[in-house]
Amino acid sequence: MKREDIERLEKVTGKLEGLHREISLLAKKSSNDGLNPFKLKLVNGALASANEILGEEHQPVEGFSQFDADDVPSNSDATVVLAIYLEELERYRSDLLKFSSGIHWYEFEDGTKLQAAQPKRLKGK
């Protein structure tokens, strides 16, 4: 693993968290309304980046890679998919972490280490 891989993982996770937060607000107001083309492009771009990072082994939704622009997803559809992707990204991140003496870290190919935040959803790691 390289430092760039972790930076990419954290950047994509941040994008998905922001999109999830904002689209969740829209879903509370009008869950069945469709995403506009701009938001759909943002969501699909973030999902494509997440798919590259996760690969087939960690595919969050079997048979799904992004939303079809011709079949516009609702706000609630997007919220559900984004939540599933966030869970899988966190699981993937957790699997990359090393843990000792109460500290979590990433260990890179060159032997350097970078302290990391505790996994959000997986206890005991």
Task: Give a structural overview.
The chain is mainly alpha-helical and 125 residues long. The protein has one domain (3-96). It has helices at residues 3-29, 37-54, 75-96, and strands at residues 98-100, 103-107, 113-116. A 3-stranded antiparallel β-sheet has the order 1-2-3, with no helix packed on it. A hairpin with a 5-residue loop joins strand 2 and strand 3.
Average pLDDT rating: 93
Low-confidence stretches: none
Number of strands: 3
Counting helices, strands and paired strands, the structural category is mainly alpha
Distance between the termini: 19 Å
Instruction: Please count the helical segments.
Output: 3
Shape: elongated
Sheet-strand content, in percent, reads: 5-15%
What is the count of structural domains?
1
Largest sheet: 3 strands, antiparallel
Listing every helix as H and every strand as E from the N terminus to the C terminus, the arrangement reads HHHEEE
Going across the biggest sheet, name each strand in turn: 1-2-3
List key phrases describing it.
125 residues; mainly alpha
Question: How would you briefly describe this protein structure?
Answer:
This protein has 125 residues and is mainly α. It has one domain. 54% of the residues lie in helices and 10% in strands.
Please describe the topology of this protein.
Layout (H helix, E strand, L loop, with lengths): L2 H27 L7 H18 L20 H22 L1 E3 L2 E5 L5 E4 L9
Antiparallel strand pairs: 1-2, 2-3
Helix pairs in contact: 1-2, 1-3, 2-3
